[in-house]
Design goal:
Layout: E1 6-10, H1 14-25, E2 29-34, H2 37-40, E3 49-52, H3 58-63, E4 71-74, H4 80-92, E5 97-101, H5 105-113, E6 118-120, H6 124-136, E7 139-146, E8 150-156, H7 166-170, E9 174-179, E10 187-188, E11 202-208, H8 209-214
Parallel strand pairs: 1-2, 1-4, 2-3, 4-5, 5-6
Antiparallel strand pairs: 7-8, 8-11, 9-10, 9-11
Helix pairs in contact: 1-6
């Protein structure tokens, strides 16, 4: 299932390699880059293009075509300075959506202030979840209600979820709001079993952090 986007991954350590493979297995167009030739060997025959380059060099990134990529994932965590400079170089060549890996809260805060669209503090599982989120192209927003305890989740229904009941959408969480596409009014505590969703509809779910971790959309 392709969603028409191209993905670039810079840095092929554990996180970068996992997310690259997940996107490739999902049929997506993926371009990878790393400074180490050995890091590219496993993926070079699977991806659209593979480059050995210095990702802090804006000219090298542009020559490799990264300015034309929809979403670039910077999977450089250990070298904080290189991670930051890579983000800056990508923004300099006009990449709008850059997702960055961070190894600490301070590192992540710096990346956010410099224009990172999203900061990830990853383990292997989070890489897989992120790739699945791209492949499903579900609009998914999480709001903290109580620090480290309660979460509200707003989801905009995509084509893969059309025709399901609100009960099926909610899974293990509580569905507290539903809005039809084009409507300005939310229906609170709707009928779960008989209401079927359509593309563009919105739902709000409520649950614990653990329930959100187990949620599978």
């Amino acid at each position: 299932m392709k969603n028409g986007k191209t993905y670039g991954i810079i840095g092929l350590g554990k996180f970068g390699s996992v997310i690259a493979n997940e996107l490739i297995n999902g049929g997506q167009s993926v371009i990878v880059a790393d400074r180490d030739e050995n890091s590219l060997k496993e993926l070079q025959d699977k991806v659209s293009c593979a480059y050995i380059l210095d990702s802090t060099n804006a000219v090298a990134l542009k020559e490799a075509g990264f300015h034309n990529i929809d979403i670039v994932i910077v999977s450089i965590g250990e070298n904080v300075e290189k991670s930051i400079l890579t983000l800056m170089a990508l923004k300099d060549i006009g990449v709008e959506t850059v997702i960055t890996k961070a190894t600490s809260l301070i590192h992540g805060q710096i990346l956010s202030k410099l224009g990172s669209s999203k900061v990830i503090y990853p383990e292997k599982e989070s890489a897989i979840r992120l790739a699945k989120e791209f492949l499903l192209h579900t609009e998914f927003e999480v709001i903290d209600i109580s620090a480290n305890t309660i979460r509200a989740v707003k989801i905009i229904i995509n084509d893969s979820l059309v025709g399901r009941s609100l009960q099926q959408i909610a899974q293990n969480m509580r569905l507290i709001g539903y809005k039809k596409k084009g409507s300005s009014d939310w229906e609170l505590l709707p009928e779960l079993l008989t209401t079927l969703v359509d593309a563009g509809d919105s739902v709000i779910l409520l649950g614990t952090a653990k329930e959100l971790e187990e949620f599978e959309h």
